[in-house]
Amino acid sequence: MTTIRHTFPHEVEIVENIFVPMPDGTRLAAKLWRPKGVGPVPAILEYLPYRKREGTRGRDQKMHAWLAGHGYACLRLDIRGTGDSEGLIEDEYTECEILDGCDAIGWIAGQDWCDGQVAMYGISWGGFNGLQIAARRPPALKTIITVGSTDDRYATDVHYVGGCLSKDNFDWSATMLAHNDLPPDPEIVGPAWRDMWQARMRANSPWILHWLSHQRRDAYWQHGSVCEDFSAITIPVLAVSGWADNYSESVPRLLAGLSGPRRGLIGPWAHSFPHDVTVEPAIGWLQEVRRWCDHWMKGAPGGMVDDPMYRVWMQESVPPSTCYLERPGRWVAEAEWPSPRIMHQTLHLNPDGRLAATAEGVDEMPVCSPLWVGLAAGEVGRYGEDAEWPTDQREDDGGSLVFATEPLPERTEILGAPQLHLRFSCDKPMALVAVRLNDVWPDGRSTRVTLGCLNLTHRDSHEHAAALEPGRIYDAVIDLDDIAHSFPEGHRIAVSLSTTYWPICWPSPELATLTVRTGETWLDLPVRPTDPADAALRSFAPPEMAAPTPSVDLNAGSAARRSVTRDLLSGEMVVDFPRWTYAREMPDIGQTVTSDAFARYRIADGDPLSASCETGANVVIQRKDGAFGHHSTGRLTCDATHFRVETSLRITENGATLFERQWDERIPRDHV
Predict the structure, then answer these.
(1) Which residues form the Xaa-Pro dipeptidyl-peptidase C-terminal domain (predicted)?
(2) What is the mean pLDDT of residues 28-35?
(3) At a CB cut-off of 8 Å and minimum separation 6, what does 462 contact?
């Protein structure tokens, strides 16, 4: 249970809005928390597009008031063109966004309440741009804390999965479309709010049109991917994620790639801050942030710098379930990463379906998976509720090649990224492979441990796709996501291979038969020996935070839950995912926000060209001067050569249509 703090070492002063001027005259809106009567002090900046006024109001208060009460000036800054900031937003992580962030840091450092030192802190988008701005080295930026983010915008984000089109690509575009034309608040920006709003309506467009135009890892994705040059980041970095998050694998990559002071922390969490979780156990995360910043900006001794470089939650085996509110396990650590302690165990995929330490002859085993493989997959990245986890993997195994060890003679723990070294041929020019590492219980139940997918036209690189020559033998390496997991004695380790994984990966244009050469294909498993030093690790404090701003959750109706339906006559399968559905009143600012949204994926078994994603979003802000709404629908479909994007947008004021626009675009498929 998280403790709510109402008193702190310093009284907290809140400035609802200040404007941060940019060199071109544009003003960015920020909310400021600072210790009253104390200063100047170091500043902590969080930089997001999610509307500080009403969008992230409650969660901002819980964190920034706590940190301000412990001696920091904290700012929540709206990105240009979002919330109450002037200008327009055109895409995520643009050059303008990064430069604005650098300029904002310089301005903050020059204020009389700041001592000239700034840290950046944030999850997801705010973690992304923290890394990107750190690579530009603004002089006043002293450290960053990046949570649930990535160093590689192509390989580890919501757009592409191993070079396959991710289910979240269109879905996320629809989410941002629903937020980018919401109006600023006249109580903050004054009479200019309507002109700003109308400019946003005209500029808003589905970002999927950008993202689908770059289906390889080209310069578009390399921009903002700090893995292109890790040496550009020299300040201390604290990188954090959760094993249930989409971004966990970026933490070990940052530890391996950066050369400056750095620490990595991965818990059992979903896409959340570690003190405010849906997957327990939570930790005293804000205390960790304070210790880190106290060390790097106040010269306090100790801090997390005394901890091992990489600390993770070693997860115990759990039965398959669509929802986990707690993951049993323990904290373990490695002094450096990559760790010389990790032993790489080779397990060969053998002709009899056995996974073993020795290769037992070469054979050819074909697989052409039905399109229902993947219905047991769950979400790409998880928030922790609404049945987001994979179900029993025996469902998907029915359409896959499966290789399993004998029952384990002893407990086996892994830490790192398993790799499948695949030798194969294919009968089609385009194909994908999904590789699942599963924990098989003695009674046959199967829990997915980690996953890797690869568009096989990207077998050599994500930059240079090349069609497959039917019948030719190729080699490919499939990287599975990093994980920490304990396989108990008596369980089996299993590898499952499929040529479809809908809706996580958009299917290839034709159903392909992949022929796996067993005996020449093997799994590299990162086995972690036990370490007695784990028992002496410093304990985390219990979680705590400041009280949120007042809010009342109203009846928003029934939100969609993740569900799978199948028409046994037509073969159509429909997967629904929950999206933002809520109704929240914020009495301190006199606003109520309602939102309902859905994402629906359809496909007919046997026909990969029937794949579609449908989205809908309705967001209404009710203020004393009226009700202002966004209403949109979208649809992504395909044929053998093109993707088709159809989107309809309508803006309302007090229920009356104020603005409308439609898009219907065809974008060529590029080996996807």
Answers:
(1) 290-546
(2) 98
(3) 154, 155, 160, 163, 216, 217
